[in-house]
Automatic annotation (TrEMBL):
This is Zinc-ribbon 15 domain-containing protein. PANTHER family: DOUBLE ZINC RIBBON PROTEIN MJ0416, OS05G0435400 PROTEIN. Residues 23-107 form the Zinc-ribbon domain. Transmembrane segments: none annotated. Pfam families: Zn_ribbon_15.
Length: 110
């Protein structure tokens, strides 16, 4: 007997709490919103059951990625607050110690 199941659990935006809240960790797009979301069980691509998510998440409007706000790269400070002599990670743009070979925040090599 062969059983074919087409469905699964997806996330959908319920309500936007703050627009332009950060940058995407995948595509680096600035079109990221802080949202409340629902988890949706779909069976044969038809929503069957939905329940609310536990805490707000960041949602990228370009690549449709949901991620926790703690993973979001920091917003770039105004030019007056930039420190030019401190090394920065080229991926997450955080200030690093000069002797670091890997970023402790995102794990990329420097």
């Amino acid at each position: 007997m062969f059983f074919f199941f087409a469905g699964g659990v997806n996330q959908q935006v319920r309500r936007v709490l703050k627009q332009g809240a950060g940058r995407c960790i995948s595509c680096a797009s600035p079109a990221v919103d802080l949202v409340e979301y629902d988890k949706v069980l779909k069976l044969f691509f038809v929503p069957v059951w939905r329940w609310p998510g536990k805490q707000p998440l960041m949602h990228c409007n370009d690549c449709n990625l949901f991620f926790p706000s703690s993973y979001s790269p920091p917003r770039t400070p105004p030019p007056s607050q930039l420190i030019t002599d401190s090394p920065r990670c080229r991926f997450c743009d955080r200030v690093l110690e000069p002797e670091f070979k890997f970023c402790p925040f995102c794990g990329s090599s420097l």
